[in-house]
Amino acid sequence: MAGYAGYFEEVPGGGVAVALDEVEISILRSLAVQLLELVGPGDQPAEGEDPLAALFAEGPSEAPSDPALARLFPDAYGDPHADPAESGVSEDEMRARSAEFRRFTENDLRARKRENALAVVRSLDSMAASGEEVGVLKLPADDCPRWLGTLNDLRLTIGTRLEVTEEDESGELYRLPDSDPRKPMVMAYLWLGALQESLVETLMP
């Protein structure tokens, strides 16, 4: 068990493993559930409606007003306020392209993010059910991309809430006093980053 403490490691025969204690399981599960609530339940077919119709339903054309959601679902064609002289595309055309792309892709992307987060919650629930203070979570290869996606989404969301910028990577944000109300969120942000990095490194050929 000690070999898996705090970081993902490769498991003989395929997959990865990481040791998590009760507190870490609880924090990670809570964050994943909050991500599910943020992304939303999605549109469900009405009674009597053909479920296949949902596959062809159009999504929103405007970016979300919530900054965290806007970070999770960014415009596909960059900054609509970019200088047309540099991009060669007018602001109106850039907005139209982004709106069209979002209309036909955002629903699927939201569904994928929900499926990823649900997979994380189910994995953690299986660990919690064991009743051990510290347990080893073993993920099959198929679950690794889902975990990687959710860890990335959680970092993006928390980073947006903290208004993290590239300059903050080694700045005052990481030297906050314990009395600062942002400190727990910063610690979660750093921990998720370490988990994500170790999972990426473990999956690299």
Structure description:
Helices cover 51% and strands 7% of the residues. The chain is globular and about 55 Å long. A three-stranded antiparallel beta sheet has the order 1-2-3. It has helices spanning 22-39, 67-72, 84-87, 91-128, 144-161, 183-203, and strands spanning 9-10, 16-21, 134-139. The longest helix has 38 residues, at 91-128. Helix 1 (22-39) packs antiparallel against helix 4 (91-128). A hairpin with a 5-residue loop joins strand 1 (9-10) and strand 2. With 205 residues, it is mostly helical.
Key phrases:
single chain, 205 residues, mainly alpha, 3-stranded antiparallel sheet, 6 helices, 51% helix, globular
Q: What's the tally of helices?
A: 6
* SSE class: mainly alpha
The sequence of SSEs as H and E is EEHHHHEHH
**Major β-sheet annotation:** 3 strands, antiparallel
Shape: globular
Number of strands: 3
Query: For the terminal residues, how far apart are their CA atoms?
Result: 24 Å
Radius of gyration: 20 Å
Quote the average pLDDT.
81
What secondary-structure arrangement, pairings included, does this model have?
Elements: E1 9-10, E2 16-21, H1 22-39, H2 67-72, H3 84-87, H4 91-128, E3 134-139, H5 144-161, H6 183-203
Antiparallel strand pairs: 1-2, 2-3
